[in-house]
Amino acid sequence: MYPNYNMNQLTLDISTSFEPKENHVALFINELVASLQIKQPYLFGRPREYDLGAMMKLVLFAYTRKTFTIRKINRLAEENLYARW
Known about the structure:
This is Transposase InsH N-terminal domain-containing protein. There is one protein chain. α1 (25-36) packs antiparallel against α2. The longest helix has 13 residues, at 52-64. It is extended, with a radius of gyration of 18 Å. The protein is an all-alpha fold. The chain is built from 4 helices and no strands.
């Protein structure tokens, strides 16, 4: 009934890599932000805890989904696989 179940298994057979479909808006946003080459160091206080390019990608993707508030962008990033990519 159960296919070869092992509690000591260290790897999963499931592929965890994700690539968006061809011509998806996430790919276009990724190429756009990568072409901007954002490399500004922090100037004041402690270092940033996030990558500026990744934040810009998330915000632009959220705007294409008509999501404008911080709480809704946070929810989009938690629930949407394309937004996390």
